[in-house]
Amino acid sequence: MEKTHLFLAPYLHAISRTIFVAAGTSDHIANDVAEILVNAHLAGHDSHGVLRIPAYLRGIESGHIKPSAEPEVAAETANTLRIDGNNCFGHYVSRWAMQKAIAKAKISATCCVSIFNTGHIGRLGEYAEDAAKAGCIGLITVGKGGKGAGPTVPYGGAEGTFSTNPIAIGVPTGDETPFIVDYATSMIAEGKIQVARSKGTELPEGCILDKHGEPSVKPADFYDGGALLAFGRHKGYALAMLTCLLGGLAGTFNADTGEMSGIFMQAIDVNTFTTITDYQKGVRAFLDVIKSTTPAAGFDEVLAPGDYESRYRTERLKNGIEIPDTIKNQLHESADNLGVSIGEDIIKPEDRARY
To answer: Burial code of 79-113, b = ≥16 C-beta within 10 A, e = fewer?
Structure first.
């Protein structure tokens, strides 16, 4: 196991913001992206945290990310939005889009959103939580598929045709622990392979194949021409396809090459169907009944989706976030390349107030 370092959330936020601003990002966008990365760590999903920063900086340098661009509405109806991300940070675009979807849902019961021209949007659960906090049910999917489109193999196939194609769902519970489903349709998210590599640990069995098509638990084998398996065999494969079909509503498909991709969101206002107060009481009672199930051998308790993230947040806000030595070094290298300091003096009062 590699050496790790503890960072409190406000400091990790300040580091991320400082680096992004130095790379040409508007301050308000840098703060949003930094907060979403730190929230991923607080939720226990280090795969979508600051280890992504070097890749984003490369995207800015290559021109694939326009760090100060603003998204815009390309088309809309009373309950739909088609959003052009203008190649801005996907995190900022997605938060902006979900807020607009929630506002429309409050008027028109529901709002569906398609997004194009944007890159990696981070942890999808972030936007599902935003919907749940607003008294809405939220659905987010990101899909990419086609010949050579990604490392995930279709069921029965021998070569990658999908990205990790995640799905997230958020449901309000009336308390600090919303119901949150958030997972890749591959057996493991690629970012979690990065985490294992940074810590020098192996992967669980049944997640990846090496370049010869043989099962492996070594992160290096994945990055040496390996592939990901879909979860649930044909079931995960079918859901991976669904994310592409929903994403394609943005018009991001090519009938000549058979490629389809895109981001889809939906917000549903609970109050349109039943009072939010009664619904949340019913949801919490339902979840608590399920959680009261007698645990199976080897388990201490039954959890509901969202419990894991809530517990991690409480613990990490108090005790800090562990960052592997390799990732800490990458952050310092990025800051040095941009000519900025990331000592603790960069923490602002508003950074502490966020957490």
So the answer is: bbbbbbbebbbbbbbbbbbbebbbebbbeebbbbb
What confidence tier does 269 reach under pLDDT thresholds 50, 70, 90?
very high
State residue 189's pLDDT score: 86
Are 203 and 171 in contact, with CB atoms under 8 Å apart? no
Taking residue 67's Cβ as centre, other Cβ atoms within 10 Å add up to: 21
The residue among 193, 199, 256, 194 whose CA lies nearest residue 51 is 194
User: What φ, ψ does residue 108 adopt, rounded to 5°?
Assistant: -115, 20
Eight-class DSSP state of 150: -
Answer whether 269's CB lies under 8 Å from 135's CB: yes
How many Cβ atoms are within 10 Å of 238's Cβ, its own excluded? 14
Confidence grade of residue 308 (pLDDT, cut at 50, 70, 90):
very high
All structural domains of the chain, each given as residue ranges with its CATH number in brackets, are 1-68+319-355 (1.10.1530.10), 69-186+230-311 (3.30.1370.60)
